[in-house]
Amino acid sequence: MTGALLTIRDVGWTSPRSGSGVEPFTLNNIYMRIESGEFVGLIGPNGGGKTSLLRCAMRYSKPESGLVGLAGNDLWAQPARWSAQRIAVVGQEFPSAFGLSVREVVTMGRIPYQRGFQSESVKDRLRVDDALATMDIVHLQHHEFGLLSGGEKQRTLLARAVAQDPQVLILDEPTNHLDPKHQVELLAHVKKLGVAVIASLHDLNLAAAFCDRLYVIKDGRVAAQGRPWDVLTPDTLFETYGVEAFVDAHPQTGTPRITWKIA
């Protein structure tokens, strides 16, 4: 095992047949590594395998080959509780909270540390308080989750993940339903957490601004990888998306800025 916190090595996986005549999707010998505190982005076309790969890493879909390693341990050889204490997930859809308050949703992040019908401990309450403060939603803690705006819901789910005390945070298109203001705010919050992050992102300018490294996932394979300036080149973007792009430096951050060519 390498010194990386999260290692995805030679992972292969094939989706179950649906019976609809659609060919099953396959991940082919994926190799990735994420260091502690590193923000790694997955980019690529729809249907390329980003979500399938994340599901293998979050212990949802078991790989047919290869290894998902966390801190030197085979993730799939560990109990589910063990992985839940180390990996937190924020998906692209909002769950039904059935009338739960924001605080109650965030408190769910402490479930991996509780056993049976054990009530929340003082430590649990303190971690929830800290998570609410970290995501700047203390003022919303008694509001009903289902009545929140999209940005508030996503911050609540991220607070739940923070309360989980993860070593790795997995985000599957976390900005999918957010307006630009809340997209930037959410990723800025994530960046400040200081934990290892692996996130699938469609907005390449956001990926360039916030990610330390990028992996291009296309046709179930890693098509390119590296720092944003190494990956977000006109040639790679055309090969990945089939659209010509202009790439220059963002005037504020100096990170790559992508402008798509209009046919």
TrEMBL record:
<dbReference type="GO" id="GO:0005524">
    <property type="term" value="F:ATP binding"/>
</dbReference>
<dbReference type="InterPro" id="IPR003593">
    <property type="entry name" value="AAA+_ATPase"/>
</dbReference>
<protein>
    <submittedName>
        <fullName>ABC transporter ATP-binding protein</fullName>
    </submittedName>
</protein>
<dbReference type="InterPro" id="IPR027417">
    <property type="entry name" value="P-loop_NTPase"/>
</dbReference>
<feature type="domain" description="ABC transporter">
    <location>
        <begin position="6"/>
        <end position="244"/>
    </location>
</feature>
<dbReference type="Pfam" id="PF00005">
    <property type="entry name" value="ABC_tran"/>
</dbReference>
<dbReference type="InterPro" id="IPR003439">
    <property type="entry name" value="ABC_transporter-like_ATP-bd"/>
</dbReference>
<keyword id="KW-0547">Nucleotide-binding</keyword>
<keyword id="KW-0067">ATP-binding</keyword>
